[in-house]
């Protein structure tokens, strides 16, 4: 029995049914988005990347997201996917972008840098929180994540956000 199944057993019957339906629907949606990620049209792949970022906690999204971050045919897909993952502002999103950044060629790395600037160029608190999260990723077991997290920290350190907390 999985942890999720065990947690469902503690819920009332109506909640168990809703949770099961929700998980089933999420799986169907992710499967369709993974198919969309394989489209020859870059716009479809960018849309898939943006949407799959919302499901980054699901193991089946990791490989497609990785492929979209390093899209071989169009760096718009790279930027859109990286931006959506960064907007999650959590370790899953940062780890996915970090791994992609560590494996990226200079062109893809530039578009990932643009996504970082787009997401963290406004609020200093968001940039600072991202730095803290990436610092924890420098201890990750995955070498690509560790290396990419260091690169992300360097990118974030270069940003001078527009808005800072008010001083007393």
Topology:
Blueprint: H1 3-9, H2 13-36, H3 42-52, H4 62-69, H5 75-87, H6 91-103, H7 106-120, H8 124-137, H9 143-158
Helix pairs in contact: 2-3, 3-4, 3-5, 4-6, 5-6, 5-7, 6-9, 8-9
Descriptive overview:
72% of the residues lie in helices and 0% in strands. It is globular and about 50 Å long. The mean pLDDT is 92. The longest helix has 24 residues. The protein has 168 residues and is mainly alpha-helical.
Features:
mainly alpha; globular; 9 helices; 168 residues
Overall SS class: mainly alpha
Calculate Rg over CA atoms: 18 Å
- How far apart, in Å, are the first and last alpha carbons? 54 Å
What is the strand tally? 0
**Beta-sheet strand percentage?**
under 5%
Helix count?
9
Give the overall form: globular
List the uncertain runs. Answer: none
Short structural summary:
The chain has 168 residues and is mostly helical. It has nine helices and no strands.
